[in-house]
Amino acid sequence: MTKYRAILGLLFFFIAVATFAQGNFHKGVLHLNKGKAKEVYIEIDFEFPQRFQQGITYMEPKDFDKYMKTGKMKGKMKQKMEPKHFEGFSLEDGREFKTVWYADLTGKAIKMIPKRMTLEQVAEGPINVYKLYSRTTGKINQELADVFFEDRANLVNYIQDNFQLLVLKDKKNPTNVVQINLLNYIGDNPRVKENYDNNQYGLRNQFSDGFKMGKYVNKEFEAAFLRMIDDYNQESTTDSEARSR
């Protein structure tokens, strides 16, 4: 009886693992270089953000269908691709990821050489905004290490609520939001600047004494910042369309 229970336990374990793995693959369109594109299923696992930011793992639709039917993953079903081979990807749930060059200048050991990464894009227009999630292998900060090793159940929540927000306008590469002069980005729009000064976006609240930004921000900061950026982008796009008529 004990033997059968052990077998059943292992069976349920493997089923759970397979179900979890299936849930990590998201249907989308991979935008290759030279304007080419193809439908694929891309792995998005927030326990290991580096696996979709520094390269992707994906499955062709026919292989994904086989995997869903059998629950068996053969080696050749999963394919990998580096960011240098594609411009980004769009997921069916609406999320967009773009390949950009970024040099992290926020740490003590400044890395001056930009690195090609594929990041989630959360604002598009004259001002583009991207999210860079923390890697969970290699050299990581102490707070993340504590969560990773001591509170694994909350790891994904921590990663999704502690990230770098990168901003790009009139430059080749994006900059961490903590390092920008905000007036250089929104100062040419008096209405948006006045709204910011009057805290209509709720962004000024995020700079209170109790808020420790470091190089990371949270979802609350992101929401307030994007309210301002979306307002700026929308007006800039409207003005541009009016001038082109």
From TrEMBL:
Signal peptide (residue range): 1-21
Keywords: Signal
Domain of life: Bacteria
Name of the protein: DUF4468 domain-containing protein
Native species: Muriicola jejuensis
